[in-house]
Q: What sequence folds into this?
């Protein structure tokens, strides 16, 4: 008796596969109302009736013959199941969006002939009752499916039934009765031979066609069998033989494609008709979204609304975060002071308090902001608004040498460049994809947020312009704007000079507006925060310790020297001549060095430096320390509003995140592009900062 089973979850993009995968496994992979969010296969184990089932969550696909990288994961899997029976999963869970049943059955019809038992989930049944669309029993019989279950991932309807069905499956280990058992009779074979010959010839003739169809492994007959497979399709093929033969001429590939979809939809419509299919509801549903879209994607209001939304998000980061930030700040300070009182004086206490607590605490404070930013991004995606933005922006994106599908990666870039770079895989055109990757690190990610917040909070006055626009919020938006605008300009420049292959078509389906699944939003936020904290825990703790050491040593006669004479101070002084024209002193220089590991480290670095420098035992307030710091050489303040702006501008552009370049290396498969990025970003950071600082001096700021 078999004990281990493998099920693959397949279906169209955005049909709810990942939501169902998460329900079954208790994991929380990213669910999103944006086609193409799952770009790789994800696997996990579940246990049903004391048997193991491996579940594989695949990216969505409309057909096994689609082009983009995420869909090729599916295509390659299905093709290998075709050619090699041993590689097949024991079953397929096919997720079909009931609000668009007919189209969802197309890919399904390609999976049918594999003779793998299929469980169909009619998902989104909370929106439309499947029983009003189709007679489920008849559908099950006519397609000869293992089981069909009405399902709702958001309401968890059908989960119990699915588990029962899976249990039944593993108990009996039933296999589906073979669907295409009827081979062609020899007379039919003869009739279809001319057609097979043409296809075969073309397969031989054109390597491109073979590659495009990825079906080179098949002889003409089995090719046609696999392509059209079903008895009723075969019957239709025979019936339409003459029409087809006369239609097939030079443009073979196109004809095979339209031929296939004609026949498949003929077959699907046939079965649906026999299963009392009605499609009234779909119209209603669409029109509701359409009404909303009339406003939200209006050619004038649409973009205005979008920009307004972005401004609202950034201002709320300041407004809503200040209370929890102050709370965390006081928590960290009192924790540090407590530890200080309870540990014996000495080097160990200095390390814990001035090194670790000051360093890690300095960054943890920014958690509320990151959560707020993430929260809004998740909402925009989950409601389906992002897909609209993709279309709204497509024309503009194309003008800038990008692609409509670059919008989502760029938007994710505001959280972190890394997921953004990975999600460029949905862009089917290599050139547009590469350009998107190259400019993504210019988008201000959440690691810059602590830097902006610290500098703005300390040096930009909290005043309101016209009693409405907060200056702090505006400066913040300006920083994001600077990065974003530069990204677009460079995209245009890069696309002019790159000679990569381009295929800039945008095929994407607009999903209806949906209420986000609260639990999934919540889980994503938790995940994101954990990631941030673990990061703070690992990288920042490590760097804080090293830095504390570099700042506190060498010791002379057991006494700490001035920071300026410490190892770190020497490093800072070493690069000071280079960064002086930007308005930076050696302390900021140390921050620039350490922030190569991750940008937010600059904050913990400053926090550590000022805490070590401070003679008193209590933890200091970083903002105050920075404000009061006087440069002994010039007698002027080290930090001024102008210096703060110069620092921020530097951080907008600088190539400072090792992890990003590692990802770019894997995604582009060469060191050429990450090196190029480091080069152009560093040059840009230096030049822009230099310009801003000196222009500021010229205008009379100090
Ligand atoms: P995938 O692309 O097939 O993996 O789809 P996802 O699991 O990412 O879900 C796509 C969108 O549909 C998300 O916005 C989900 O919140 C939403 N969704 C998934 N299942 C249901 C459902 O049963 N009902 C409703 N109303 N929305 C759902
Ligand atoms: Mg998915």
A:
């Amino acid at each position: 008796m078999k004990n281990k089973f493998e099920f693959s979850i397949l279906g169209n993009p955005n049909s709810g596969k990942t939501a169902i995968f998460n329900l079954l496994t208790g994991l929380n992979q990213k669910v999103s109302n944006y086609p193409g969010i799952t770009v790789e296969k994800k696997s996990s184990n579940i246990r049903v009736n004391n048997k193991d089932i491996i579940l594989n969550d695949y990216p969505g696909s409309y057909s096994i013959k689609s082009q983009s990288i995420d869909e090729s994961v599916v295509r390659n899997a299905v093709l290998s199941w075709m050619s090699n029976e041993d590689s097949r999963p024991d079953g397929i869970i096919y997720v079909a969006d009931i609000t668009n049943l007919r189209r969802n059955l197309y890919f399904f019809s390609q999976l049918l002939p594999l003779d793998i038992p299929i469980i169909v989930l009619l998902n989104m049944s909370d929106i439309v009752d499947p029983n009003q669309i189709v007679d489920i029993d008849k559908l099950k019989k006519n397609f000869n499916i293992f089981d069909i279950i009405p399902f709702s991932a958001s309401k968890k309807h059908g989960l119990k039934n699915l588990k029962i069905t899976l249990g039944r499956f593993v108990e009996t280990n039933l296999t589906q009765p073979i669907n295409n058992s009827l081979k062609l009779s020899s007379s039919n074979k003869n009739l279809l031979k001319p057609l097979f010959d043409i296809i075969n010839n073309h397969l031989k003739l054109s390597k491109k066609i073979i590659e495009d169809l990825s079906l080179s492994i098949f002889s003409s007959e089995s090719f046609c069998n696999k392509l059209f497979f079903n008895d009723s399709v075969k019957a239709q093929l025979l019936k339409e033989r003459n029409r087809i033969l006369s239609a097939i001429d030079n443009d073979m590939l196109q004809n095979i494609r339209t031929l296939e979809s004609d026949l498949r939809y003929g077959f699907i419509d046939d079965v649906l008709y026999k299963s009392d299919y009605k499609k009234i509801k779909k119209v209603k549903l669409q029109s509701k979204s359409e009404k909303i879209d009339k406003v939200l994607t209006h050619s004038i209001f649409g973009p205005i609304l979008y920009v307004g939304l972005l401004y609202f998000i950034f201002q709320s980061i300041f407004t809503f975060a200040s209370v929890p930030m102050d709370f965390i700040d006081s928590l960290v300070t009192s924790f540090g002071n407590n530890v200080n009182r309870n540990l014996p004086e000495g080097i160990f206490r200095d390390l814990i308090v001035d090194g670790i607590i000051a360093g890690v605490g300095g960054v943890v404070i920014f958690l509320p902001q990151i959560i707020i930013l993430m929260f809004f991004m998740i909402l925009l995606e989950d409601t389906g608004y992002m897909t609209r933005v993709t279309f709204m922006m497509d024309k503009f994106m194309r003008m800038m040498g990008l692609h409509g599908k670059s919008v989502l990666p760029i938007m994710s870039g505001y959280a972190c460049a890394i997921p953004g770079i990975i999600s460029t895989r949905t862009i089917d055109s290599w050139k547009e994809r590469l350009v998107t990757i190259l400019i993504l690190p210019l988008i201000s990610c959440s690691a810059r947020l602590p830097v902006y917040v610290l500098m703005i909070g300390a040096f930009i006055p909290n005043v309101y312009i016209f009693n409405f626009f907060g200056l702090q919020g505006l400066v913040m938006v300006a920083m994001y704007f600077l990065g974003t605008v530069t990204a677009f300009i460079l995209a245009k420049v890069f696309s002019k000079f790159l000679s990569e292959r381009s295929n800039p078509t945008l095929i994407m389906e607009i999903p209806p507006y949906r209420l986000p699944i609260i639990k999934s939003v919540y889980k994503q936020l938790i995940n994101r925060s954990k990631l941030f904290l673990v990061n703070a825990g690992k990288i920042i703790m490590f760097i804080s310790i090293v830095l504390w050491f570099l700042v506190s040593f060498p010791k002379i006669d057991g006494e700490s020297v001035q920071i300026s004479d410490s190892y770190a101070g020497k490093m800072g002084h070493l690069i000071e001549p280079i960064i002086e024209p930007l308005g930076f002193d050696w302390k900021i220089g140390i921050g620039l060095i350490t922030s190569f590991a991750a940008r937010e480290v600059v904050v913990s670095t400053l926090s550590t430096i000022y805490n070590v420098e401070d003679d008193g035992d209590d933890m200091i307030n970083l903002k105050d320390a920075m404000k009061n710091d006087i440069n002994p050489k010039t007698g002027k303040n080290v930090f001024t509003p102008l210096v703060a702006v110069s620092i921020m501008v530097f951080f907008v552009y600088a190539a400072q995140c090792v992890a990003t370049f590692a990802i770019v290396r894997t995604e582009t498969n060469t060191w050429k592009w990450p090196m190029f990025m480091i080069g152009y970003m560093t040059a840009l950071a230096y030049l822009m900062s230099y310009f801003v600082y000196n222009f500021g001096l010229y205008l009379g700021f100090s």
In short: DSSP finds 30 helices and ten strands in the chain. Residues 186-274 form one domain. The two ends are 80 Å apart (CA to CA).
